[in-house]
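Example 9 (inverse folding). The structure is encoded as follows.
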């Protein structure tokens, strides 16, 4: 066990010091894993696999605001700039480095597996490890695509810039960026392969299972606006894990009312810690608070009134019960909303209403007996989109939703911030929805094309 722990330490230190796409220089020699047990150990590296999603997808959204004093107090320049959609860059570039660390580890495991025999004795274990590595790589690439690429449009994706697609664990970046079409097809391919390989159950919420692969596919297809596929995979995920928490039994007065590893969590993932997202700095946008209807328990379960600033609210419902990062993983609540929206867009309004009311039943006071009844398809869709805002708060999903919904005139949103009297705006469909790749990465890899402005 000591030897295996040393292996993990060496690999992790190596990740912190590798060059090219991770933008730091190598100075530590890494021991190379060579057994299934070594691969399992690497895939249990929570810090480098589950805590690397970009915080900028939350910071750049519209769910909270910072007053000028708190904004100036944020020490991470990248986070400050993300809040105002500025093209200035800090020195960390964690939104880029973090997911590529995950990809490096996944590629390391995949390379080892190629050299190991797969036989009757180890088939189940081998396949599960292979599926996990593919899942982690797909999840990381999707997180990167949401931050550094424009939204997917099937009519233009072949001509839009995607990501550098790294498939080996060497420390040299690939030659340039793929198309957005190739990026999304690569993500879908990894998730699909993983769905055939992963076990139905996982040892922990930090490790993916088949349900997680289906949920990941549903999320990606929704971002691609391919609603027949997003419906299919959301339905498959729900059939494997058909459970919702009853918010009536939660202690809304608690500072951490959402139980860790609860029955809704399919896969756990976090952003790194960000001061901008901390409950001491961020204030919930009043427009979001106003979306909650009478009897909606989430208003008290998700938020607490700030004692130092009465009338304002902070978020307290992290699904990991931590301030060390924001939860951006997969849940059954999100799966139900993907299925509902997809059904509505496919004109299957009966299913959309059924899913919406099933979620309401677990989120509203029992004595409210709420049931949403509507015949107008556009009103049903609007209610589902509003429900995504109420349910998936502080999950990083609003940024992805803004990008895809800005393609629809009826659902376009112009974002606006005000700091010290200065107004910052991000128009619907702006090129600013694709963050600039860190300049240090461009300098180390001149073939990587910067995003347009």
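The amino acid assigned to each position is listed next.
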């Amino acid at each position: 066990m000591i030897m295996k722990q040393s292996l993990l330490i060496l690999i992790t230190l190596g990740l912190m010091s590798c060059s090219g796409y991770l933008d730091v220089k190598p100075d530590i020699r890494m021991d190379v894993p060579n057994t299934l047990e070594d691969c399992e150990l690497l895939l249990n590296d929570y810090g480098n696999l589950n805590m690397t999603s970009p915080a900028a997808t939350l910071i750049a959204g519209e769910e909270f605001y910072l007053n000028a004093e708190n904004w100036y107090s944020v020490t991470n320049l990248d986070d400050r700039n993300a809040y105002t959609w500025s093209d200035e860059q800090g020195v960390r570039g964690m939104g880029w480095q973090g997911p590529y660390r995950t990809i490096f580890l996944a590629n390391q495991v995949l390379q080892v597996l190629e050299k190991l025999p797969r036989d009757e004795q180890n088939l189940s274990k081998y396949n599960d490890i292979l599926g996990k590595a593919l899942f982690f790589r797909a999840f990381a690439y999707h997180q990167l695509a949401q931050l550094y690429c424009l939204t997917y449009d099937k009519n233009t994706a072949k001509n839009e810039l995607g990501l550098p697609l790294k498939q080996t664990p060497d420390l040299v970046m690939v030659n340039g960026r793929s198309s957005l079409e190739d990026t999304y097809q690569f993500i879908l391919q990894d998730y699909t392969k993983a769905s055939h390989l992963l076990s139905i159950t996982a040892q922990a919420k930090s490790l993916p299972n088949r349900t997680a692969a289906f949920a990941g596919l549903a999320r990606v297809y929704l971002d691609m606006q391919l609603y027949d596929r997003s419906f299919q995979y959301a339905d498959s995920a729900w059939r494997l894990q058909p459970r919702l928490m009853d918010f009536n039994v939660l202690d809304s007065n608690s500072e951490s009312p959402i139980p860790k590893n609860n029955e809704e969590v399919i896969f756990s993932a976090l952003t790194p810690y960000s001061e901008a997202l901390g409950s001491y700095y961020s204030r919930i946008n009043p427009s979001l608070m106003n979306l909650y209807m009478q009897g909606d328990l989430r208003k008290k379960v998700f938020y607490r009134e700030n004692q130092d600033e009465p009338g304002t609210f902070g978020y307290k419902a992290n699904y990991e019960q931590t301030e060390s990062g924001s939860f951006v993983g997969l849940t059954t609540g999100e799966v139900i909303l993907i299925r509902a929206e997809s059904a509505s867009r496919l004109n299957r309004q009966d299913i959309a209403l059924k899913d919406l009311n099933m979620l309401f039943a677990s989120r509203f006071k029992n004595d409210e007996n709420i049931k949403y009844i509507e015949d107008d398809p556009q009103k049903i869709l609007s209610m589902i989109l509003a429900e995504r805002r109420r349910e998936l708060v502080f999950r990083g999903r609003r940024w992805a939703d803004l990008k895809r919904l800005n393609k629809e005139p009826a659902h376009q949103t112009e974002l606006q911030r005000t700091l010290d009297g200065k107004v910052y705006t991000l128009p619907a469909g702006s090129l600013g929805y694709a963050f600039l790749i860190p300049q240090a990465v461009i300098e180390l890899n001149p073939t990587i094309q910067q995003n347009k402005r």
